[in-house]
Amino acid sequence: MHLYPVSISLSSFGADYVRAQGQGQLAPLVAQIGASHIELREELFDSFDASALRSAIAAQGLTCVYSSPLELWQPGQTAPNPQLQQALARAVACDAVWLKVSLGFYSSASDLNVLHEQLRGQPVRLLVENDQTAQGGRIDPLVKFFSAVAEQGLPVGMTFDIGNWQWQQQSVSSAALQLGRFVEYIHCKAVQRTAAGKLVATPPELTDLHQWARLFRHMAPGLVRAIEYPLQGADLLAVSQVQVATLAALGRATQEVAHG
């Protein structure tokens, strides 16, 4: 049976646990639970040792993804965020295949030519994710950005975060329909509202999994799908293995029919 590649966003293990263990030290666990990719989280680094991270990840045969919370475009600025260069350098130092960032304040004045120059020759590919903000979590600005990127041939793809659309009351189905062709990496999480009215990421129910499988039909087959919801339990290994196996098989039958 063909299974799809699964990534683990290390934030899924909880910020306190990740900081206590160290991100490189979690590579064996990620490999044990059956994932092929490990997503490092810049915001969870207390210190950054690229050599140690690279070695730990390579030793487990994992592919590295580097996630940075930076916004690609800043308010009132036409050039990309100057912190992009440092984030690219860190991603390259970790042998990451992708650098994931947020859109930020993209507008018609944003200079894609400057971004193109900064990305020229980079061994890591830039992926822009829909986040939870008004500027970077709504369909319209993202459609405008990715359409312009495609027209100008920039080496930029999309991380499609299934759950994040809810923070801006966006239709995830409409988002998949309009943005699916740009997607290269998928962040998976269900979302529930707490009694206090706060939206939080949760593991998927069966209805969520069915919805995700439908969304995948708007995207290229075989994309890496990432767990970005809490992985917790007395037996963390067993809990995580079940979640990875579920996500790895999701959409298999429908995509084989559609693209078989």
Write up what this structure looks like.
With 260 residues, the chain is of the alpha/beta class. It has one domain: TIM Barrel (Alpha-Beta Barrel), CATH 3.20.20. The protein has ten helices and ten strands. The protein has helices spanning 15-21, 27-32, 50-59, 84-93, 112-119, 139-152, 172-179, 206-216, 236-249, 252-259, and strands at 6-9, 37-41, 63-73, 96-104, 125-129, 156-161, 183-188, 190-193, 199-202, 224-227. The strands form two sheets. The chain has an eight-stranded parallel barrel, surrounded by four helices. The chain has a two-stranded antiparallel ribbon with strand order 8-9. Strand 5 (125-129), helix 6 (139-152) and strand 6 (156-161) form a beta-alpha-beta unit. Helix 6 (139-152) runs parallel beside helix 7. The longest helix has 14 residues, at 139-152. It is globular. The two termini are 14 Å apart. Residues 253-260 have low confidence and may be disordered. It comes from Pseudomonas rhizosphaerae. GO terms for molecular function: endonuclease activity. This is AP endonuclease.
Strand tally: 10
Largest sheet: 8 strands, parallel, barrel
**CATH secondary-structure class:** Alpha Beta
Q: Give the second-level CATH assignment, the architecture.
A: Alpha-Beta Barrel
- The CATH H-level superfamily is Divalent-metal-dependent TIM barrel enzymes
Number of domains: 1
> What class would the helix/strand composition place it in?
alpha/beta
Shape: globular
Biggest sheet, spatial arrangement of strands: 1-2-3-4-5-6-7-10
**Measured distance between first and last alpha carbons:** 14 Å
Strand content: 15-25%
Total DSSP helices = 10
Organism: Pseudomonas rhizosphaerae
Keywords: Endonuclease, Hydrolase, Nuclease
InterPro entries: Xyl_isomerase-like_sf (IPR036237)
Protein name: AP endonuclease
